[in-house]
Amino acid sequence: MRLRAHRCWSVLLLAAVTAAWAPAGGDTRAQDAVEPEAELPDWGEPLRKRTQRSKRRAEPRAPAPQPARRSERGAERAGAEPAKEAVEADVSSRNIAITSAFTGTEVVVFGSVVNSRQPSAEAGYYDVIVVLEGMATPLTARRKSNVAGLWVNTQAFAFESVPSYYAIASTRPIEEIAEPALLARHAIGHDYARLAPSAHSVMESQPGELQNYKDAVIRIKQRDGLYIKRDYAVIFIGKSLFRASISLPANVPVGPLTARVYLLREGELLSTFQSRVRLERSGVELWLYQAAMRHPLYYGLAAVLVAALAGLIASMPFRRKPPA
Amino acid sequence: MHIYLPIAEMSANVLLFLGMGAAVGFLSGLFGVGGGFLMTPLLIFSGIPSAVAVGTGAAQIVASSVSGAIAQWRRNNVDIKMGVVLLAGGIVGSVIGVKMVRILRLAGQFDLFVALAYVTFLGVIGALMLIESLNAIQSARSGQPRAARRSGQHNWVHKLPLKMRFHRSKLYISAIPPMMIGAFVGFLGAIMGAGGGFIMVPAMIYLLRVPTNVVVGTSLFQIVFVAAVTTVMQSTENYSVDIVLALILIVSGVIGAQYGAAAGARLKGEQLRLLLAALVLLVCARIAWDLVTTPPELFSITTTLGAQL
User: Fold this and answer.
1) 3-state class of A87 per DSSP?
2) Which of A168, A294, B27, B277 is surrounded by the fewest CB atoms within 10 Å?
3) Which residues of A touch B3 (CB under 8 A)?
């Protein structure tokens, strides 16, 4: 009888220990609403602040005109020019907490076209591209080749910075929206993402190698679900309001994200907007990670202690008197 | 049910890893082995970065051997002096091994090295066990008695200097061979994330001729401490011990081992060894397969070490 009670108690304790992780997490998106805006001074800053401001000042404040046909646009520019379009946007959650329950999440980027001349949501008058980009991180790409029958990493290529995550959503395929030159200038699309090779690796490798390694990095990131491309994922809801839902997978590297919104019309960039998303560990995750990185010795000693205790406790219910 | 692993930086299915821990625990209880050599490859196959698999494996070994070590200690089956000598070697080996993990990770050759180490050791040990158990089964069938092990036979081990008296083991031998064995096992433990009992026990029996009743207790005693040192070192050098993952594996593993041990009591020794040999060779073949077949993706990427924080 005593043994059974003992066993029950320990099993319960273990269950409690394992279960303790889950409730510690939970969805912290509720916190987003109360997060003071003052903490994000760089919030909602247009990409090209100065040029836009000066242009706006020069333009007369006119009421939004009726949607103009293509032939009329030239005339408008020459004469009484209508208010220029601009894009304003925001993200559904500015702070995303990685807790023990984190299994990936969705970020909704929504915004509106100021002074929209679009008659309806279906008109397709504007093109919007939304880019959600992760932190630039150093990375090494390696290539295997067959050495005496074994597949061994033989060549390496270092990148000084590669976006850890890159999701792009647009109203239609970006190749149809704009010229490659514009896409490249603004680092729009996986092929134009800012993959900066290290000077050392460039010097040491063959001329064509860089492109091979770049392609490989993009291919592997796509396979891992970290580079995402979704054509037609930006949807206009009204004549000016649009939204795009972008998924952050569970394996998303932790770090700040930048959301960039581009408003285009017939291959011409009209306006841009930028905002940030914080992606941080929180709760137990943060505590454990910081302990492991900042105090590795204590973390290691604690790990040994916890492991030994867990081993002893888990085997306690099964302990019998040694056989005679 | 998913849980985010703080060091592996991935969301893992708790039930999958609980099942994995229980399965490996069951097998380790069944065969009386540590199970690290099965756990590490399984973790790598399931997507855990190999360095984290190896580091976390060390913590898991502490847990799975500590209760056994205490039980053996109570039964006075530990030769402490021998254990300390093995441990001294083991710590040296572990230090070298952990440093080597770091160097190999930076060079991008760690995965290859782990795979080669596993293929070599699992291949050799699996083959030896297979032959031995088949012979044992055959001789049991034909009714011939097995040749008794000759005791007291001297080999080259006994000619080395620095002789010490090990009372519990009733041995008077040089301290160099146990140190070397300890260092070798400590090194492997750091690189392979395994306790190394599968090397330690045969080495103590056949090379040092330690009496069998002391072998298991002494090797467990040494493994607990070497694994503890390795865990701390992997934390400080490679930041690769995921305590959340370790806890999941420990809890299920220890419980699985108890049921495994109960099941093992109903099987014959030779049959058990044959099964274990088959299992070891299977894991070996699986790892070797990945090394020789053309991988679907020739490229791989790693975030540069120390880039985080």
Assistant:
1) strand
2) A294
3) 21-22, 100-101
Reported as a single tens digit per residue, the pLDDT across A197-253 is 888 888 888 878 888 999 999 999 999 899 999 999 999 998 899 999 999 998 888
| Length in residues, chain B | 309
Within-domain flag for A3: yes
Predicted TM-score (pTM) of the model is 0.74
CA distances for B217 relative to A21, A226, A291, B181, angstroms: 35, 49, 34, 16
Amino acid symbol at B129: M
Contact B247 A306 (CB under 8 A): yes
Cβ separation of B301 and A315 shorter than 8 Å?
no
Selected residues 186-205 of chain A with any CB under 8 Å from a CB in chain B: none
Check CB contact under 8 Å for B7 and A254: no
A99: in domain: yes
> Nearest CA to CA, how far is B139 from chain A (Å)?
30
Q: Hey, which residues 206-225 in chain B have their CB within 8 Å of chain A?
A: 224
Report if residue A67 sits inside a domain: no
Q: What is the pLDDT of residues B94-134, one digit of tens each?
A: 999 988 888 888 888 888 888 998 899 889 888 988 888 88
**B5 closest CA partner among B45, B62, B58, B43:** B43
Host domain of residue A15 = 1-25+297-318
